[in-house]
Amino acid sequence: MARKQTRETFSRYDTADYLKKEDDVLAYLEAAMEEAGDDPAFIAVALGNVARARGMMQLARETGITREGLYKALSADGNPSLGTTLKVMKALGLKLTPQRAEEPTRRSKRRVA
Predict the structure, then answer these.
(1) What percent of the chain has pLDDT over 90?
(2) What is the DSSP letter of 37?
């Protein structure tokens, strides 16, 4: 007798589903900033994931940016201005804080003979 095969179904993975707690959001964004290097799109997507977890409509109201504008700016193809990024971070209860990336290399002084 032949065995009946069952099909497995999988739901699409969405990072926003796992960003419900403040500590999770903070850890996620810290890791994204560390991983991003010089890639602004990586950071934009990470902010977009947090924005979707919080609710894009509410964020649109708080930032004064349209929902469609937020989706576009915070996508892999988006290129949000610093102003947009700061508005989004403020609405999310976050702030951009500078910190030293690495120890600066010391240049040795050459002596001229």
Answers:
(1) 60
(2) T
Q: Is 2 a residue whose pLDDT tops 70? A: no
Query: Is 113 domain-assigned?
Result: no
One-letter amino acid at 9 equals T
Read off the tokens for 19: 């960003």
Task: Check: pTM over 0.85? Answer yes or no.
Answer: no
What distance lies between CA 47 and its chain's CA centroid? 3
* Range(s) of the domain holding residue 82: 15-91
Question: Is residue 108 domain-resident?
Answer: no
In the numeric block, the tokens 């977890």 are attached to 53
> Into how many domains does the chain fold?
1
Nearest to residue 28, comparing CAs of 94, 109, 78, 104?
Answer: 94
